Amino acid sequence: MRRILLNLFVAAIIVAVLGFFAAPGVAFFALRSAAGSNDVNGLQTLVDFDAVRRSLRPQLDARPEAQVPAPAFLEDPIGAVRRQFEDASRPAPDADAWLTPAALAALTRGEGRNAAEGSRAGALSPPEEAREPWPRPRYWGVNRARMAVVGETGSETIFTFERTGAYRWVLVHIGLPESGAPVAPAPSVAD
Q1: Given this model, what pLDDT does residue 186 score?
Q2: Distance (Å, whole) CA 135 – CA 158
């Protein structure tokens, strides 16, 4: 009897550890499923919309300096004030088009910068037999995990999940690919 209890205890610990490390992958597939089925309530529990919106705005801005943090006021007071005025005078890019269920579903399929097209009225949904790419882990930490989805063009969309509970992960950042241009294949070496 003692041996059975010990085996059950060890099995429970193994299942808990596996679940702990598999939770970000489960969160990604839950995001894909909720976005694909237009489940807005499910997406609200899986996505921190404010954090994702903040992460998308600099990527959607055409200015390269928008990607760089503003200079510190103590190090460069004139540059810091100038940057504040420039940021205030420019309208913020609309990141909400990227946060619709259709656009999130397209992002999880690896469509990259073309994903917002799916959120426009009259956009065609992907065919049912379309094969969805599997996410690849890019970083796996205790409180943060990054998964990359490579689209048909070879561009990589990166999803960053953050732990909010023992087994609960929330999407906090989406890294869009630099461009929609296909990646050149590596030259093959013939013997």
Answers
A1: 39
A2: 9
